[in-house]
């Protein structure tokens, strides 16, 4: 009832439904084909594709979408089929398929192009030089600012405006670029960063672009780029032109998937289009990011606050590299104290470093919600792929099997359930209703749990899942049969029904435990090793096994305990399923337990047949049986007369013994000849033998 109330509340006040969500094979969904972006003549290995499939599947699973199909097409493309109508966040996780890298920030500014800024200033009546940049704290010297003005053909007003609006991108960390009026300790994004490992700097730049230039090794000191000292590398005409012409407010410029050089400065947009960056070469690859998760930030005293945060963890080599990076950038003015986290050519976040991180643990805090922090954590954790992909096509697909197959599957399950019910009623009479009611309760509980899983965890029911439910319900009937047969065995041994229920339950539950443990182990192993719809089968199979155990322990056994106390079942009504005559109980055994006598003429044909079968197994013939029965009857009928006869014989024996004694006394006292004494002695011996024989006959009669 509580579970039904929870589902009802979800339907009324949330997005729960009264039917489970259906998987791709029954409802259809969205198909996304990803094409790898590599230079001409570059071969793609099977290992790279398999690794990409595994990471994309991990991304999809992290959003709670189940029953997704992710496969390779030929030897290049990856096909991602998502059931139903996935949300934009899930689609973006699939589309965002390039590598995750860390770069230093050289400049952050207004996301608009210089042309747009000038047009808007003209419309608003602002003069080109109304925004004096002398008060701007953008980290540039007067000489550098003048050089930028010469290269862009405008003052640095636009840059200053950009810094005032510069968030981290992606909506996960706001104001990553900081404000020209804010100091580093007031930066909207703060980092207590990380552990990292750099397999080698060449690996750090993998997948981000060409490998031109000097290769970087693990022993190469970091940072590789200093925007203050290496201004000539990023303040070039080509970089500045690209920066001023790039319009990050245009979604077409934020599709990602571009291959950027790993050893040169680049221009990039924030994921949400709120800022524009000039970034240095790749300092660290996302391959060295061991883990990322969302949580809450800790205060200066170590107490947890209510501010959402993203916790990062790097591997061993990355920890040393990140230590060197944070040692260099901490304490500098913005944007030189920032490092950008770039995925697929877009900046996810660009936090400022407020401390040197030496323990390999980082924490990004900022003006974002817990959901945004979780999204950023998922992007960081599942972001790095061995290849960069581009969306080749995205289409809606129809169900691969369709609703007709679902109806057929449900009809098949219904037919199987009806057969189980018919068998239970024929085999157990009214007791079979206990099986039927238990199956109904199990079915209702299974349906409610599927609704809860669909609502809270995004589970989708596939045809394989339906098969798992049908098989699980069939196995549930086995538990009831094992229990009932154990109780019947105890009845056949001569116990009354109440005792048979308790003893039979003690023995049956051990068998049920063992069988369900095997079923659950099979379901768990199948769920771990399988993917796609096979996991759906394993999930529903394991779910029904758990429900079966709960039902037989909390419903079936208590119900049978109650029924055993009723007159209908306790006295063994022929329709109860516990009738001793139908069970072939031996009369002597049942007489001793219940003080009942079952005559041959009262036995049913089935009971007689079973008794004859037992006699044949024991090596007894019908004549032996009838002779034994007749002897027992004769003995019972003559019990009283035998007792009387025995008493009379005993009295007669006493009299004869007395006479014999007197005869012996007389023979020994004299007055008789020797011949007479010998004859008297012989008569006494004969009388003694007769007395012994009579006593023996009396004992046999008593027996």
Structural key phrases:
703 residues, alpha+beta, Alpha-Beta Plaits, Multidrug efflux transporter AcrB transmembrane fold, five-stranded mixed beta barrel, 13% strand, elongated
Describe the structure.
The chain contains 24 helices and 14 strands. Among the domains are: 68 residues, Alpha-Beta Plaits (2-Layer Sandwich), CATH 3.30.70; 241 residues, no CATH class; 163 residues, Multidrug efflux transporter AcrB transmembrane domain (Multidrug efflux transporter AcrB transmembrane fold). The protein is elongated, with a radius of gyration of 46 Å. 52% of the residues lie in helices and 13% in strands. By secondary structure, it is α+β, with helices and mostly antiparallel strands. Helix 23 runs antiparallel to helix 24. The longest helix is centred in the C-terminal third of the chain and has 33 residues. About 15% of the residues have low confidence. The strands form 3 sheets. A 5-stranded mixed barrel has the order 4-7-6-11-10, surrounded by 4 helices. Strands 8-9-13-5-12 form a 5-stranded mixed β-sheet. Strands 2-3-1-14 form a 4-stranded antiparallel β-sheet.
Task: State the gist of this model.
The protein is α+β, with helices and mostly antiparallel strands. Among the domains are: 30-97, Alpha-Beta Plaits; 98-120 and 167-384, no CATH class; 403-565, Up-down Bundle (Multidrug efflux transporter AcrB transmembrane fold), CATH 1.20.1640.
Beginning-to-end CA distance, first to last residue: 65 Å
Supply the number of helical segments. 24
How is the quaternary structure best described? single chain
Gyration radius, to the nearest Å?
46 Å
Strand content: 5-15%
**Could you give the order of strands across the largest sheet?**
4-7-6-11-10
> Would you identify the regions where 5 or more consecutive residues have pLDDT less than 50?
127-139, 153-213, 588-597, 638-647, 663-670
Calculate the mean pLDDT score and round it: 74
The class by helix and strand makeup works out as alpha+beta
Using DSSP, what is the number of strands? 14
Q: What level of helicity do the residues show?
A: 40-55%
- Overall spatial form: elongated
Biggest sheet architecture: 5 strands, mixed, barrel
């Amino acid at each position: 009832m509580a579970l039904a109330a929870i589902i009802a509340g979800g339907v009324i006040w949330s997005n729960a439904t009264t039917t489970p969500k259906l998987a791709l094979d029954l409802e259809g969904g969205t198909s996304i084909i990803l094409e790898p972006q590599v230079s001409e003549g570059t071969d793609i290995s099977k290992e790279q594709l398999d690794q990409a499939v595994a990471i994309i599947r991990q991304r999809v699973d992290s959003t709670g979408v189940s029953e997704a199909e992710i496969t390779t097409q030929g030897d290049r493309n990856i096909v991602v089929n998502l059931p139903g109508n996935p949300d934009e966040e899930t689609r973006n996780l699939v589309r965002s398929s390039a590598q995750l890298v860390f770069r230093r920030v050289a400049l952050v500014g207004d996301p608009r192009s210089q042309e747009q800024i000038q047009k808007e200033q003209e419309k608003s009546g602002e003069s080109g030089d109304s925004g004096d940049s002398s008060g701007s704290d953008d980290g540039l010297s007067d000489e550098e600012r003048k050089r930028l003005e010469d290269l862009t053909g405008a003052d640095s007003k636009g840059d200053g405006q950009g810094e005032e609006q510069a968030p981290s991108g992606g909506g996960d960390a706001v104001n990553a670029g900081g404000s020209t009026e804010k100091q580093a300790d007031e930066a909207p994004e703060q980092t207590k960063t990380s552990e990292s490992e750099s397999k080698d700097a060449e690996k750090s730049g993998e997948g981000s672009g060409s490998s031109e230039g000097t290769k970087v090794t693990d022993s190469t000191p970091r940072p590789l780029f200093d925007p203050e000292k290496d201004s000539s590398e990023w303040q070039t005409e080509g970089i500045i032109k690209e920066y001023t012409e790039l319009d990050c407010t245009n979604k077409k410029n934020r599709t990602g998937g571009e291959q950027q050089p790993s050893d040169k400065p680049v221009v990039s947009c924030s994921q949400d289009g709120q800022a524009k960056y000039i970034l240095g070469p790749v300092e660290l690859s996302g391959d060295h990011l061991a883990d990322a998760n969302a949580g809450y930030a800790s205060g200066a005293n170590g107490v947890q606050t209510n501010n959402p945060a993203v916790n990062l963890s790097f591997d061993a080599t990355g920890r040393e590299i990140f230590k060197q990076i944070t040692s260099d950038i901490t304490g500098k003015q913005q944007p030189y104290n920032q490092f950008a986290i770039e995925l697929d050519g877009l900046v996810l976040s660009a936090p400022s470093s407020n401390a040197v991180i030496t323990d390999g643990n980082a924490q990004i805090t900022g003006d974002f919600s817990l959901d945004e922090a979780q999204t950023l954590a998922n992007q960081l954790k599942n972001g790095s792929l061995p290849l960069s992909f581009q969306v080749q096509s995205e289409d809606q697909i129809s169900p691969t099997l369709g609703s007709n197959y679902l109806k057929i599957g449900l009809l098949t399950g219904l037919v199987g359930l009806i057969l189980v019910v018919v068998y239970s009623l024929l085999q157990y009479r009214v007791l079979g209703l206990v099986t039927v009611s238990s199956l109904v309760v199990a079915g209702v509980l299974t349906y409610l749990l599927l609704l809860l899983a669909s609502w809270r965890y995004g589970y989708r029911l596939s045809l394989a899942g339906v098969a798992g439910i049908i098989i699980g319900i069939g196995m549930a009937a086995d538990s009831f049969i094992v229990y009932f047969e154990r109780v019947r065995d105890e009845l056949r041994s001569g116990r009354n029904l109440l005792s048979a229920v308790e003893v039979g339950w003690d023995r049956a539950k051990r068998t049920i435990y063992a069988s369900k443990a095997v079923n659950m182990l099979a379901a768990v192993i199948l769920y771990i090793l399988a993917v796609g719809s096979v996991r759906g089968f394993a999930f529903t199979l394991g779910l029904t096994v758990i429900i079966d155990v709960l039902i037989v322990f909390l419903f079936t056994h208590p119900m049978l305990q109650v029924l055993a106390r009723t007159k209908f079942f306790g006295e063994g009504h022929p329709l109860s399923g516990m009738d001793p005559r139908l069970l072939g109980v031996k009369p002597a055994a049942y007489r001793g337990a219940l003080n009942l006598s079952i005559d041959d003429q009262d036995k049913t044909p089935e009971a007689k047949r079973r008794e004859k079968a037992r006699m044949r197994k024991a090596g007894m013939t019908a004549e032996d049986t009838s002779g034994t029965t007749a002897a027992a009857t004769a003995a019972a009928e003559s019990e009283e007369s035998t007792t009387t006869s025995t008493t009379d014989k005993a009295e007669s024996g006493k009299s004869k013994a007395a006479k014999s004694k007197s005869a012996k006394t007389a023979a020994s006292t004299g007055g008789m000849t020797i011949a007479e004494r010998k004859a008297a002695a012989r008569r006494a011996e004969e009388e003694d033998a007769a007395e012994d024989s009579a006593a023996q006959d009396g004992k046999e009669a008593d027996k």
